[in-house]
Design brief:
A hairpin with a 2-residue loop joins strand 8 and strand 9. With 400 residues, the protein is α+β, with helices and mostly antiparallel strands.
Length: 400
């Protein structure tokens, strides 16, 4: 194979845009509610009734008319209401009702006084402080009216979102189908995590990095370890495509060295080059290709380069394919000085620090793109200027 050098490198924003333009939006499927946690919602979820559906009491205490407590007073205790009670009970002038969290507000009452602010004296309750209308009550429809949108397409079904689905009786949920992803780890020097490596070998940490990043999104993926034999690599890529693959992830062999065959092999397997080479450190050799039914992201083999590739570029593909909005970094002030080591835009491991009540970004020291420790940093930042000074804004990606 002929040696080649990189042409003009594209910027990371252009790379993200090309990935999103090429990535598909996967179809939706209907799953039972219990199988929906962590998935991406595809339909709107509407309130099936007013929320709350009645004037709901938010604290144990006494329901009464606020007009009766313009000054300290003793009110007649008329009865009590527990959550779920259907008893017809109301409050008249000079009366109160013992109520509990979650119960409905009795007719005639407009507020609830906490039990800690009252004392029982025979059949009367002594209140020593005034009350205001509406206190400790959530009135009907305050949270939502019937037909209001509670959840929107593209939302991840977090525990809170799952609780919302259950509250409206949404037992069947439309979610995006999970992509079919395959992972190919190349390199004669790479051995399985179970193996005992020689002094010149490395265990396949990138395989676990990619696989676990996908599993955090509920996406199952196996991985295959191969050396640098072009025929074996091409056969494996073709096998993945025959099995049905939406996204192929490769690491290693993607630069321009004498044994970097991956980019050329991907083209021979029908992937059109969308870009090869990004103005970024680490991650310059990144290759992205597309064919009618699949895309491929091929990362360099250095662990921190893969970590950066997952957080910025794989995330861009996944968000588009799953029906989510694009993600933008947030810009926060740098908390210290940092000089760029090359003329490329640099990603570096970062952490947030709070100084005088304001968040600032600090550099988490690491030894380079081959560092496994770099990926342990909770977050990622990007330096586009030759030098960052304290207070300058820096692009920041929180932990994914």
């Amino acid at each position: 194979m002929a040696y080649r050098s990189f042409g003009a490198l594209i910027g990371w924003q252009a790379a993200v845009e090309r990935i999103r333009n090429s990535a598909p939006i996967l179809p939706s499927e209907i799953v039972p509610l219990q199988d929906a946690p962590g998935r991406i919602l595809r339909d709107r979820v509407l309130a099936d009734r007013d929320q709350p559906p009645f004037d709901r009491i938010t604290m144990d205490g006494y329901a009464l008319r606020s007009a009766d407590l313009s000054r300290p007073a003793a009110l007649l205790l008329k009865g009590q209401l527990f959550a779920g009670d259907e008893a017809a009970i109301s409050v008249g002038p000079g009366e109160c009702v013992r109520v509990f969290t979650g119960s409905r507000l009795p007719g005639g009452a407009d507020c609830v006084v906490a039990q800690e602010e009252a004392h029982k004296e025979g059949d009367r309750i002594l209140f020593t402080a005034p009350a205001r209308a509406g206190q400790n009550v959530t009135f009907t429809g305050l949270e939502a009216r019937r037909g209001d949108v509670l959840l929107s397409p593209g939302q991840k079904l977090t525990p809170a979102a799952m609780a919302m689905l259950g509250s409206v009786g949404h037992l069947q949920v439309a979610v995006t189908t999970l992509p079919r992803v395959q992972i190919l780890i190349t390199g004669d020097e790479i051995v399985s995590p179970e193996a005992v490596p020689t002094a010149l070998q490395e265990r396949a940490s990138n395989a676990l990095l990619l696989r676990c990043a996908l599993r955090e999104r509920g996406i199952p993926a196996g991985y295959t370890l191969l050396g640098d034999d072009p025929e074996l690599l091409k056969a494996q890529i073709e096998a993945f495509l025959e099995q049905g693959t939406d996204l192929l992830l490769c690491t290693g062999g993607v630069s321009v060295g004498d044994r970097d065959f991956v980019a050329q092999l991907l083209k021979e397997c029908g992937f059109a080059e969308v870009f090869h080479g990004v103005n970024l450190k680490p991650g310059k050799p990144l290759f992205f290709g597309a064919r009618a039914e699949a895309q491929v992201l091929a990362f360099p083999g250095n662990p921190f380069a893969v970590h950066v590739g997952i957080r910025i570029f794989l995330e861009a593909w996944l968000r588009k394919a799953l029906g989510q909005a694009a993600e933008e970094p947030i810009y926060l002030p740098m908390g210290e000085s940092r000089r760029r080591k090359t003329d490329r835009v640099e990603c570096f491991p970062a952490r947030l620090d709070v100084c005088e009540g304001f968040s600032q970004v600090l550099y988490a020291q690491h030894t380079g793109s081959g560092s496994l420790r770099a990926g342990l940093s909770p977050s990622l930042a990007m330096q586009e200027e030759p030098e960052l000074l304290p207070g300058m804004p820096v692009a920041f990606w929180p932990s994914g």
